[in-house]
Amino acid sequence: MAIFTIFFTETSALICRQYLDKNPTILYNISIIGITYFLFLFYFFKLTENQNLKKLQLGICVVHVINFIVSAFITKDFITVFSETTNFIGIFLLLVSVAVFMIDTLNSEHVLRLRSYYPFYVALSLVLIYTGLVPLLFFGKMVTQPSEAYVFQILMLVVNWIGYILLIAGTFYAKKINTAYEI
Question: I want to staple 71 with a disulfide (CB 3.0 to 4.6 A). Which of 6, 27, 86, 168 is the partner?
């Protein structure tokens, strides 16, 4: 669902920008920061087996929802301006959730078949994407020249492509290994 939400948001934003001449910021604020981050957080919550770590994962989900709701109410330009603070807090919570998930995974039987454990690839790709995007988003505000903006957009695209290719490749790789185990 999270990947579908990202695809839907990016496609809708492209249509809004290119064909309708509308500002798609509200789509990013709601779909990416609000919904997609929550779906990933909930995914890792559901996968966590250790009860203490599961409570921590639930707390992370609750903090994300509170962060998003408070931001929506106190930010007067929430509809027209990308909520960077809320985004960075969401990314931080997502990376903490991935770390908690990895601790849980490495202390479980899943570590024995890590290469065939698809959630491992999801976690790995999210770490790659968001540790790559945070510096780009932070320094992106300093871009002033059209040539710099072009390079910035290419870097953002490459980081996303690498991360999502890893996610998709992990799907097929884990399935192939799991199929081999079943035989």
Answer: 86
